[in-house]
From TrEMBL, chain A:
Keyword Disulfide bond belongs to the record: no
NCBIfam families xrefs: NDH_I_N
One biological process term in Gene Ontology: ATP synthesis coupled electron transport
UniProt protein name: NADH-quinone oxidoreductase subunit N
Annotated gene: nuoN
Species for this entry: Deinococcus psychrotolerans
InterPro entries for the chain: NADH-Q_OxRdtase_suN/2, ND/Mrp_TM
Entry membrane topology: Multi-pass membrane protein
GO cellular component annotations of the record: endomembrane system; plasma membrane
Domain of life the protein comes from: Bacteria
Family: Belongs to the complex I subunit 2 family.
Subunit annotation: NDH-1 is composed of 15 different subunits. Subunits NuoA, H, J, K, L, M, N constitute the membrane sector of the complex.
EC number from the UniProt entry: 7.1.1.-
Automatic annotation (TrEMBL), chain B:
Annotated protein name in UniProt: NADH-quinone oxidoreductase subunit M
Lineage per the UniProt record: Bacteria, Thermotogati, Deinococcota, Deinococci, Deinococcales
Superkingdom, natural source: Bacteria
Keyword Ligase: no
Topology class, membrane: Multi-pass membrane protein
Source organism per UniProt: Deinococcus psychrotolerans
GO molecular function: NADH dehydrogenase (ubiquinone) activity; NADH dehydrogenase activity; ubiquinone binding
GO aspect biological process, one term: ATP synthesis coupled electron transport
Keyword Oxidoreductase annotated: yes
Entry keywords, A to Z: Membrane, Oxidoreductase, Transmembrane, Transmembrane helix
Length: 470, 475
């Protein structure tokens, strides 16, 4: 359980050393911690270790999602290097809390039972609430408050669901639940179904499935951009990891959740895409786009884990790269934490050509245009859902993508239109942020042209049959 | 060699930004010239053979490419017109680096479309060609380009996403191990399912063809593009719907195509006539040409949908060479705009001041309206000949289009180039240096293949015969 311990130690170190060292040093330490954790994950690959009697399991699923989480966190830290001071976030506590949150997310990814998962989720959420409000501004406070209230409701729902599932099956562990539900020889089937649906609602809050998404636009646009980056990538990846474990592994055979999930996905795709279509602020647009992507990601959850699992993992990786890349450009160029209005983006290409092209690549990828990796992600999700028999749902998702193309295209194309008004961007060079942008753009392009680099690692169906543990 | 042919342009389009600004036109021209030379060399050796490697093995996606006759003809035409467009862009557009890069990027997309023998790869190239087209419109377009852009993108993506689902369905229901065309052919999908999948596939191709209800993006796309007409040349080349239908739909959805044949042929004939009708009332050369192109595409669609050998050969022939004369006409319109500052069809009197420009434009219009001896005639005649065997009435309706074409083309030509030059109008200078090449080369090609169409037909015929033979005759 080394990877989690390393991040935890890093978090503690950041907390304590924060009294003595300047913030940039702490950030460097945090980044080193993340890299070390990543290295230890790579060494565990194919090991299939478990500890605490199966409560934590380091199978390849956990490791691949863990690596995606670390990647997102690393990009967050890189961006925070430059922009934290401007966003009035430059305290060492930011890094400490961030690492606590990462520890929580890793706990979810590695969890082997519902309690571990819940602990991870709470650690992640509590840190998230604080990070969102850390900036001393009304907007951030309002955003954090909404996040906290709705997140707390989500957690409560989740805990209630866990209690009911425990009541029905008599166990917390994924293996136990799966065994108990395998032939549906459960004492009280209605208890189990209600429990599963409550779990679904609870997770719905965390990943922002409509109609539980209402906090997202306010949070992403109200909180500092770098926080928005973190919450929309790392936290979402972790919440999906939890869903994958619970619904893809433990409760796969439980009836009813899949049909409810379908309705939620349709609502998410419709609401997220239509909402994004009418935004004039780029940050809010990204927030709605994050909701829309939740819908596409969830498609993969519905599918058979052998095809849905790799699709989801690949999509999460790509989603992290492209969303973090777009937020990083935004963080580098925005004047205030309110981000750009779409009109501000007019002519960006002629003022900051490299950033504009990078943002355009990220947006093209988010829209699902080849040769960028977003296309492959979307394609895999569609294919997984299609093969599981959800043809209608796939068609709706495809129609949603058309709307998505329009709202991604508008800012992307505005950047290339000539504009004679003076620049509205924050001037200057920001090397670490640029590094994060480059990471995102290169990742999205390389994984788009050679998807097998990442997909090949997780494509083996065998590693997805043990989602619930052995 | 085949990878060189496909990917040389995109490589050049990326490298162009490393080249010093003053050498960029020459660099782009050299890259386009080399690509064309590659195409001609491939022709001389009889096409480039099939090459296939797994791309994403876990998904059964392969990188399969081939340049057989049909692909080669369309590929060479693409390379040829790209070269012409680059020469004109380098001459006409100040600081053309970005434009040249986009043109080259799009060329790779187009060549990839023609070479792809794997459906996912086809989709990837299909969308790849879209991005530079959008950027050209965004960077160089006119005032209302945002609306045109959104319309173009929305139509295109609407179709292609349905096609993507069809592609997934085709492999899944047919049980083919890969998306490669040969494997898909060996594992066909039959019955109603085939019809549904075909409709998904058709959605994308009908947008690109474009077929009647899906055509609305086309006039705006052309009207809002840069005055020079360079972007329009690429737009003309992008009408790959007919090719997609021929390459994939004919062999993968034969029953569905036969079943829907009357409806589709009717739609295509209607598109041809309807577009000609609208073209008649246009007062902007770009819009006029857009509708003329639409009308030609209706013809091409008629040929493809008739599932008749002669008509199909004619359709592919027309598809290839329509690019040349319509593309050159767009450039001629750009030259007109350069001289008189307007794209109106009511300028008047250009002939007296710019005789060569007017004469060459007229020759190109003759090709466009299907005057015998020029290349447009060969294609249109074969289509009508073949379509007549399938449905005489629809062939008759479509045949009316050729009359309509003469009407709209020559009327607009007359009001622009003949009549009297208004008093006090700017002096329109005649063709200069490279202009001669830019219009002359397409005319030379149009005349050569109009008189001696053998070599081009020889490229198309065997492929079409094999394709139709695969359907078991009796069609």
């Amino acid at each position: 359980m080394l990877p989690i311990l390393i991040t935890l130690l890093g978090a503690i170190a950041a907390t304590l050393l924060g009294f003595f060292l300047p913030r940039r040093a702490i950030t460097v330490i945090s980044m080193v911690t993340l890299v070390l954790s990543g290295v230890s994950m790579v060494t565990l690959w194919n090991g299939g270790l478990t500890s605490f009697n199966g409560s934590l399991q380091a199978d390849n699923v956990a490791l691949s999602i863990g690596l995606i989480i670390l990647l997102g966190s690393l990009m967050t830290l890189l961006v925070s290097f430059d922009t934290a001071a401007r966003a009035k976030l430059a305290f060492p506590e930011f890094d400490a809390l961030l690492l606590y949150a990462v520890t929580g997310t890793l706990l979810i990814a590695f969890s082997g039972d519902l309690v571990t998962m819940l602990i991870g989720l709470e650690v992640m959420s509590l840190s998230g609430y604080v990070i969102a409000t850390l900036q001393n501004s009304r907007r951030a406070e309002e955003a954090g408050m909404k996040y906290f209230l709705l997140g707390a409701v989500g957690s409560a729902t989740l805990i209630y669901g866990i209690a009911l599932v425990y009541g029905a099956t008599g166990t917390f562990s994924y293996v136990g639940i799966r065994d108990a539900t395998a032939g549906l020889q459960v004492e009280n089937i209605s208890l189990l179904v209600v429990g599963a649906l409550l779990l679904l609602c609870g997770f719905g809050f965390k990943v922002a499935l409509a109609p539980f998404h209402q906090w997202t636009p306010d949070l992403y646009s109200g909180a500092p951009t770098v926080v928005g980056l973190f919450l929309s990538t790392v936290v979402k990846v972790a919440a999906f990891a939890g869903m994958l474990r619970v619904f893809g592994g433990a409760m796969q055979n439980v009836p009813a959740w899949a049909s409810v999930m379908q309705i939620l996905i349709i609502a998410t795709i419709v609401i997220g895409n239509l909402g994004a279509l009418f935004q004039t602020n780029f940050k809010r647009l990204m927030a709605y786009s994050a909701v829309a992507h939740t819908g596409f990601l969830a498609l993969a959850l519905l599918a058979n884990p052998a095809t849905g699992g790799p699709a989801l993992t690949y999509y999460l990786l790509v989603y992290t790269l492209m969303t973090a890349g777009a937020f990083a450009v935004l963080a580098a160029l925005q004047r205030t934490e309110e981000g750009f209005s779409l009109d501000d983006m007019r002519g960006l290409f002629y003022r900051h050509p490299a950033y504009a092209v990078a943002l355009a690549v990220c947006l093209a990828s988010l829209a699902g245009l080849p040769p960028f990796a977003g296309f492959m992600g979307k394609y895999l999700a569609f294919q997984a859902a299609f093969q599981a028999g959800y043809v209608g749902l796939t068609l709706i998702a495809a129609m949603g993508s058309v709307a998505a193309l329009i709202y991604y295209l508008r800012p992307a194309m505005l950047m290339f239109m000539h504009d004679r008004t003076p620049a509205r961007e924050y001037p200057g060079e920001r090397t670490p942020t640029t590094a994060a942008v480059v990471l995102g753009v290169v990742g999205v392009t390389v994984l788009g042209v050679l998807p097998n680099l990442a997909y090949g690692l997780v494509a083996n169906p065998a590693i997805w049959t043990v989602l619930a543990g052995r | 060699m085949i990878h060189f042919f496909i990917f040389l342009p995109v490589l050049a389009s990326l490298l162009i930004f490393l080249v010093p600004v003053r050498w960029r036109e020459e660099f782009a021209g050299a890259a386009a010239g080399l690509t064309l030379a590659g195409g001609l060399w491939s022709w001389s050796v009889g096409g480039l053979s099939y090459y296939s490697v797994p791309w994403i093995p876990a998904l059964g996606v392969t990188y399969s490419v081939q340049m057989d006759g049909v692909s080669l003809l369309l590929g060479i035409v693409t390379a040829f017109m790209t070269l012409i467009a680059i020469i004109y862009a380098g001459k006409r557009i100040p600081n053309p680096g970005t434009m040249l890069s986009l043109i080259l990027m799009m060329e790779t997309g187009l060549l990839g479309i023609y070479a792809a023998r794997d459906l996912v790869l086809f989709y990837v190239f299909f969308e790849d060609a879209l991005i530079p087209a959008l950027l050209m419109l965004a960077i160089y377009g006119k005032a209302n380009r945002m609306a045109a852009l959104v319309k173009f993108a929305a139509y295109t993506l609407f179709g292609s996403l349905l096609m993507l689902i069809s592609i997934i369905g085709l492999k899944y229901y047919g049980g083919s191990p890969t998306f490669a065309l040969v494997d898909l052919q060996a594992h066909p999908v039959t019955g109603t399912l085939q019809t549904w999948l075909f409709l998904g596939f058709l959605a994308a191709m009908a947008v690109k063809l474009p077929l009647f209800p899906m055509h609305a993006w086309l006039p705006d796309f052309h009207a809002q593009n840069h005055d020079s007409g360079v972007a329009d040349v690429m737009g003309t080349l992008y009408k790959v719907g007919a090719y997609g239908l021929f390459r994939f739909a004919v062999v993968l959805f034969p029953d569905a195509m036969l079943e829907l044949r009357p409806i589709l042929m009717g739609l295509a004939a209607f598109t041809a006539l309807y577009a000609a009708w609208i073209a008649f009332s246009q007062t902007d050369w770009k819009r006029l040409l857009a509708y003329a192109g639409l009308s030609h595409m209706g013809f091409v669609g008629l040929g493809i949908f008739s599932m008749n050998e002669t008509a199909m050969i004619g359709a592919l022939f027309l598809l290839a060479f329509q690019n040349i004369y319509t593309g050159a006409l767009f450039l001629a319109a750009g030259m007109l705009q350069e001289r008189v500052g307007s794209l109106s069809t009511k300028v008047g009197g250009i002939m007296t001041q710019a005789g060569a420009l007017s004469g060459m434009t007229m020759t190109l219009w003759f090709a466009s309206i299907g005057v015998p001896g020029l290349v447009g005639f060969v294609g249109e005649f074969s289509i009508l000949l073949g379509a007549y065997q399938v449905s005489p009435w629809l062939a008759f309706i479509a045949g009316l289009t050729t009359i309509a074409a003469a009407a709209y083309g020559l009327t607009a030509f007359q009001t622009t180039y003949w009549q009297v030059r208004p008093a006090g109008a700017v002096l329109a200078h005649d063709l200069r240096d490279l202009d001669w090449l830019i219009l002359g080369a397409p005319i030379a090609v149009s005349i050569f293949f109009g008189v001696y169409s053998g070599p081009a037909l020889a490229l198309v015929q065997p492929v079409v015969r094999t394709w139709m033979a695969g359907l078991g005759g009796g069609l």
